[in-house]
Structures are given as C-alpha cells and as structure tokens.
Amino acid sequence: QVQLIESGGGLVQAGGSLRLSCAASGGTFSTYNMGWFRQAPGKEREFVAGVMWIDTSGFYADSVKGRFTISRDNAKNTVDLQMNSLKPEDTAVYYCAAASEGSAQAMRKLLGINYWGQGTQVTVSS
Q1: SS3 assignment, position 31
Q2: Which of 24, 35, 76, 91 is deepest in the core (most CB within 10 A)?
Q3: Which residues contact 47 (CB under 8 A, 6 or more apart)?
Q4: Do 18 and 10 meet the contact criterion of CB atoms below 8 Å apart?
Q5: What pLDDT shows up at residue 56?
Q6: Under a CB-based contact definition with an 8 Å cutoff, are residues 14 and 90 in contact?
Q7: Pairing mode, if any, of strands 120-125 and 58-60?
C-alpha cells in the first residue's frame, strides 16, 4: 500500500509561482510512474504532468507546457511540481498519483492509477 501526501499549495497572485511536493511511503517508489492531476470546482479531474519510472523526463498537458515542471527524486521518494506563470484558470485541487504500470498515454487519460493523494488546494487570484 502506497501512501501519498501532498504539500505546498496555497494562494498566489497571477504570474506567481508555487512548488508542490508529494512524499510517498509504503512502496517501492522508484518503480512507479508518478503524476500530478487537478480538479477545479464543477469540472472533472484532469491530467497535468507525469514522469515515468524509467525516464526522468516529464510529459505535460498542453495547458501547462512551458510553465510547469515535474521532477522526481527516487532517493527521497518525492515528486515535485514547479508551477510558474500561474493563471487564475490553474486554480484547483492538485493531486499526486502513482501507477504501477501503463503508458504515458494511459496516464493522460487517468487510466491505471493505483494510488491517489488527498490533494492540496491551489488558488490563483487575478
């Protein structure tokens, strides 16, 4: 059983930055594909960014590409999301997730996720 705990959310003005962190415990972190997702009020949960267990390079939703950066530290069992140039439309609850198998394409569709964190609120004011 993998447990995921997010931190780093908060209130920020448009154009500002936040760094989210997800700490994992209870499993072999280095073997999991990791992702960040978000859910705004009244909307479905959507993919934001992911990083495969075998490749440290990230992949991103078009809406955040060039502004967000995902990184993982297998020694610390953490995966971070650096968010720059934040926009009001980035406001959502952000979730960390782990998938034991599957492709980047599957993660983009929220398929194959084994574990979710409890979420952290990010609010971007205009």
Answers
A1: helix
A2: 35
A3: 35, 37, 61, 107, 108, 109, 110
A4: yes
A5: 80
A6: no
A7: unpaired
Which pLDDT value is given to residue 69?
Answer: 98
Q: What is the pLDDT, as a whole number, of residue 54?
A: 86
In the chain, at which residue ranges do the beta strands (DSSP E only) sit? 3-7, 10-13, 18-25, 33-39, 46-51, 58-60, 68-73, 78-83, 92-99, 115-116, 120-125
Asked whether the beta carbons of 82 and 22 are under 8 A apart, the reply is: no
Place of tokens 């009020």: 41
What are the beta bridge partners of residue 13?
125
β-strand partners of 5:
23
Given CA atoms 43, 93, 12, 22 in this order, what sign does their dihedral have?
negative
Contact (Cβ atoms closer than 8 angstroms) between residue 56 and residue 72: yes
Asked if 24 and 3 touch (Cβ cutoff 8 Å), the reply is yes
